[in-house]
Amino acid sequence: MTTPEITPVKNATYHNNKGDLFTSFDVNDFEVPRGRDEVWRFVPLRRLRGLHDGTFAPAEGPDVVVDVPEGVDGVTVEKLAKGDARLGRAGGAVDRIGAQAWSSAPGGQLVHIAKGVSVDQPITITVTGKGPDVTTFGALVIELEEGAEAFVNLHFVGTGTHADNHEYLVGDNARLTVVVHEDWDDDAVHCAGERAILGRDSVFRHTVACFGGGVVRNVPQVKFTEPGGDAELLGVYFADDGQFFEQRLLVDHAVPNCRSNVMYKGALQADPDSDKPEARTAWVGDVLIRSNAQGTDTYEVNRNLVLTEGARADAVPNLEIETGEIAGAGHAATVGRFDDEQLFYMLSRGIPADAARRLIVRGFFSEVIGRIPVASLREKLEDRIAEELENTPL
Hints:
It holds the Pfam family SUFBD_core. By secondary structure, the protein is mainly beta. It has helices at 96-104, 340-347, 353-369, 375-390; strands spanning 59-60, 63-67, 75-81, 107-113, 123-128, 135-144, 149-157, 161-170, 175-182, 189-198, 203-210, 215-224, 230-239, 244-253, 259-268, 279-289, 297-306, 311-321, 328-336. Strands 1, 3, 4, 6, 8, 10, 12, 14, 16 and 18 form a 10-stranded mixed β-sheet that branches.
């Protein structure tokens, strides 16, 4: 009897389930992605400026500024050199661009919140692009020890080509809120891999607000390591002519009695007569409930409003369940236009049609933005939506 030959699974493809992805810190372990590859099928590869195949412009370290509120004790900010053992503790990259960032970044930033420390004002981390002819690679670690609490505003501005990895290490009974604000100029390219590791009874709140950039791709992943964890992944995005935004996420329920909630909302508008590419978004949401994750309670939803012709939204929710002993699980996704009943109701009360449509869109986003705990940031995002709507021919 001959032993059958086993062909290794290709890099970045699913193994036994969607949580068992090949990971690595070395870009050479990944093949150059092609348009037909599952995890890249929505992405305009030609617009990535070589991040995916190594042909990017000369690379430098990123311009990163960390602002900690005055008078706060127990918060340490440190620049880490390449190879520091405190980098990469959440695991390697799941795709070639993430691995390229690990291979090329000169080091990273560590923000550490000590045991029991509560920071009631935002810690703001600003990453500024270095221009269209420069590529930057970075790494960021946010670590909370047991019982700590913090809010981090991660703000991306300017223009350039940037790829980075974010690690969120949330200790037992700790609570971390993160807002990733993609506020780039409209010609920027940004690809971010994000990995959160949650301890016992920890709480993680992660919100993506994506309005700027030419091509922006976020890959957040959450893994529960002890029971009692609670994760909420939220997102708002508004794509115009020539913009492509992708959110591709995974929530990995690997232990019992954890909760997750995923809610992303997006709007798209474009001018069919423009010479720019169409406005396009893609959302892929994977939730995995492993065989030993009894008592899991999870739900994910993605809603998209297509405001004009020349815009396209793809929404792919996936729910994989390996045990029947769960508290609840569900998913949903929609792509559509205005709610005609809402519009009729507002018109019947004398509200002009354009104003009514704008109110509907703002109300559509408010369910997500209203969950951000800092009023000044909520107002900033509301203002950004209003600014987008001023240029939308509704």
